[in-house]
């Protein structure tokens, strides 16, 4: 005797998707959010928008902010893996956040950036203190941008580097 799986009787089961009009994420999405780094906020609203984002969870601090040069720093404390060194995912999050903030600053009017490709290389471990991400553009076009990010420790040694490719998408209502 075998039990028949009720899902295999050929009956289509409805799938629970939100209505097309429902927005599953807040709009605008703040820079550094785990959902996306898009934001239509200006710099004045950025601090309030960071509450509850990955940027605040990892205690990232925005030091400089422009499309040509953005600097974000983050403490190693709270971002370690079990071996005591900074987690690679934390450095990837720092790289994507720094590049996304720069891309947002350089976004053409009526658009907002969404990351499409993140590449990260880890060069040496960071064990303590703060790491700093410095972002510069490699390409800034009408529909895409590519940013290079170098992450260094407090002694100026590069611990990681990466690139983020962004696609500029139209902002709702623009």
How would you describe this structure to a colleague?
- With 174 residues, the chain is an alpha+beta fold.
- The chain has a single domain (22-170), classed as Roll (Thiol Ester Dehydrase, Chain A), CATH 3.10.129.10.
- It is 15% helix and 32% strand.
- It has helices at residues 46-49, 54-57, 88-105, and strands at 61-64, 70-75, 111-122, 130-140, 144-152, 158-170.
- It has a 6-stranded antiparallel beta sheet, with helices on one face.
- β1 and β2 (70-75) form a beta hairpin.
- The longest helix is centred in the middle third of the chain and has 18 residues, at 88-105.
- It is globular.
- The model is unreliable at 1-8, 12-20, 22-27 and 29-44 (pLDDT under 50).
- Belongs to the thioesterase PaaI family.
- It comes from Actinomyces ruminis.
- Residues 84-159 form the Thioesterase domain.
CATH architecture: Roll
Give the SSE order as H and E letters: HHEEHEEEE
CATH superfamily: Hotdog Thioesterase
Q: How many structural domains can be distinguished in the coordinates?
A: 1
CATH C-level class:
Alpha Beta
Structural class category: alpha+beta
CATH topology: Thiol Ester Dehydrase, Chain A
Distance separating the two termini: 62 Å
Pfam families: 4HBT
Keywords: Hydrolase
Protein name: PaaI family thioesterase
Domain Thioesterase: 84-159
Keywords:
about 170 residues, Thioestr_dom, single chain, PAAI_dom, HotDog_dom_sf, PaaI family thioesterase, Thiol Ester Dehydrase, Chain A, disordered N terminus
Write the layout of secondary structure elements.
Blueprint: H1 46-49, H2 54-57, E1 61-64, E2 70-75, H3 88-105, E3 111-122, E4 130-140, E5 144-152, E6 158-170
Antiparallel strand pairs: 1-2, 2-4, 3-6, 4-5, 5-6
């Amino acid at each position: 005797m075998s039990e028949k799986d009720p899902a295999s009787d050929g009956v289509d089961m409805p799938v629970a998707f939100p209505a097309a009009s429902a927005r599953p994420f807040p709009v605008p999405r703040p820079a550094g959010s785990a959902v996306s780094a898009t934001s239509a906020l200006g710099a004045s609203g950025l601090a309030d928008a960071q509450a509850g984002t990955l940027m605040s969870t990892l205690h990232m601090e925005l030091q400089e902010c422009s499309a040509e040069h953005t600097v974000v720093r983050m403490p190693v404390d709270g971002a370690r893996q079990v071996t005591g060194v900074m987690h690679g995912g934390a450095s990837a999050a720092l790289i994507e956040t720094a590049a996304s903030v720069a891309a947002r600053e350089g976004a053409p009017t009526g658009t907002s950036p969404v990351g499409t490709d993140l590449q990260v290389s880890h060069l040496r471990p960071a064990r303590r203190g703060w790491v700093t991400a410095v972002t510069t553009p490699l390409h800034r076009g009408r529909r895409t941008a590519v940013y290079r990010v170098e992450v260094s420790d407090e002694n100026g040694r590069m611990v990681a580097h990466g690139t983020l490719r962004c696609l500029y998408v139209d902002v709702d209502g623009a």
